[in-house]
Amino acid sequence: MKNLLKDSKAYYENNDYYEIFSQAEDYESKVAEYLNSISKNKVVLDAGCGTGKFLKVLENNAKEYIGIDLSNDQLSKAKIKSTNKRSKFICSNLSKIPLDDGSIDLIISSWVLGTITDIEERNNVVCELKRILKSNGIIILVENSENSEFEIIRGRDKDTRTKEYNDWILENDFILDCKFNTYFKFKSLEEAKKCFEVIYGSKIASKIASDKIEHKIDIYKFNQIKSKNPKETS
Ligand SMILES: C[S@@+](CC[C@H](N)C(=O)[O-])C[C@H]1O[C@@H](n2cnc3c(N)ncnc32)[C@H](O)[C@@H]1O
To answer: Ligand 1 centroid vs 63 CA: distance in angstroms?
Structure first.
């Protein structure tokens, strides 16, 4: 039996540390500002919302905010942050989303699809995201870029995981929309080490030498209209 949570268990089993990690990520809120600029008055799905990293900016801007996650623990943290009574939180697998066809203007999915290592399941999730998207809707994936200090610390400069995953995104009708040079900023070196130890293991944590870690972020965009007319995108 496929166990999708197993793929991303570090993100939900130790969610107190994931929350600290998440808050340290994109410390200057560059991605949040980008999401702010595209979410005004939209029906937004935060697909794999976790503890609600971008909940505040999306909820403040959107006509309606829906957060979906497989993990109830993560969702309960997101719910605490919510200040809009109209926001909805659904515990569901993204491979079978309980929403109508063509009902969502904007889908944001930050650091989720790469945690689904079963390609068949990941493809199912993409099909579901496309199914619930309005005909002029947009899907945004927030992902790790290759070649940053964050990737080197995780040993991803020595293998092809990030590259293979980012290539897979481009093969699935997404285009690279923009790149952000960001960083993680923890309260202390000890806090940085502890978070990385809990999520990635002690070997990776031992490589951390500062409370500030450089992180490059890629934003990928899927636009249904462009995808139906691939020539127009070239
Ligand atoms: C790395 S965390 C990212 C969370 C959040 N988007 C953020 O930016 O902090 C990945 C999240 O995706 C969720 N997730 C993974 N696979 C999922 C699936 N098939 N269906 C729903 N949620 C899933 C996990 O439970 C976890 O909360």
So the answer is: 23
State mean pLDDT over 69-98. Answer: 95
**Confidence check: pLDDT of 24 > 80:** yes
| Residue with CA at minimum distance from ligand 1 atom 12 | 48
* CATH number where 70 lies: 3.40.50.150
Average pLDDT, the chain: 90
- Ligand 1 centroid–CA 226 distance in Å is 27
Answering whether pTM is above 0.85, one says: yes
Q: What is the pLDDT of residues 34-67, one digit of tens each?
A: 999 999 999 999 999 999 999 999 999 999 999 9
For ligand 1, atom 9, name the residue with the nearest CA: 53
69 lines ligand 1 (CB under 6 A): yes
95, pLDDT greater than 80 = yes
The answer to the question of residue 48 being in a domain is: yes
Q: Separation of 4 CA from ligand 1 center, angstroms?
A: 10
- H helices of the chain, in order, are 4-7, 9-13, 15-24, 30-38, 55-61, 72-81, 119-132, 149-153, 161-171, 189-200, 202-205, 224-228, 230-233
Domain that holds residue 53: 25-184+216-222
DSSP 179-234: EEEEEEE-SSHHHHHHHHHHHH-HHHHTT--SSEEEEEEEEEEEEHHHHHSHHHH-
Q: Which of 1, 4, 8 to mutate to test the pocket of ligand 1 (most atoms within 8 A of CB)?
A: 8
The answer as to whether 14 is a domain residue is: no
Is residue 196, in this structure, part of any structural domain at all?
Answer: no
Beta carbon of 111 within 6 Å of any ligand 1 atom? yes
Number of domains in the chain: 1
In a domain, 227, yes or no: no
